[in-house]
Design goal:
about 100 residues; mainly alpha
């Protein structure tokens, strides 16, 4: 049986997008809160960011420094995850010494 598609008002969409963009909240969290599919909310946020790309204020010095710090930390964590993913085989035969 086909489900009926829900319709959302432009005001509802705008408020949902503002919860993500202005309040810097994760899309998944907001989607759960307002009971909307994550993909749907992600599409709304993406469209908003494309339409308002030139309106975002530039980052100040402390925000840039924080961004660089987070990017560095992200790189390090990815390297650690990749390294650990290549780790010791986790088979019973290996553990028994066969």
């Amino acid at each position: 049986m086909a489900q009926k598609r829900r319709k959302f008002s432009p005001e509802f969409r705008d408020e949902a997008v503002k919860m993500v963009v202005v309040e810097s909240r994760p899309i998944a969290e907001v989607a759960r809160e307002i009971q909307v599919n994550e993909g749907t909310l992600g599409t709304w946020v993406s469209r908003y960011r494309q339409e308002h790309a030139g309106e975002e204020p530039p980052l100040n010095i402390s925000e840039r420094a924080r961004l660089r710090e987070l990017e560095r930390e992200n790189r390090e964590l990815r390297m650690k995850t990749e390294f650990l993913g290549k780790g010791v085989p986790r088979t019973r035969e290996f553990a028994m010494g066969s």
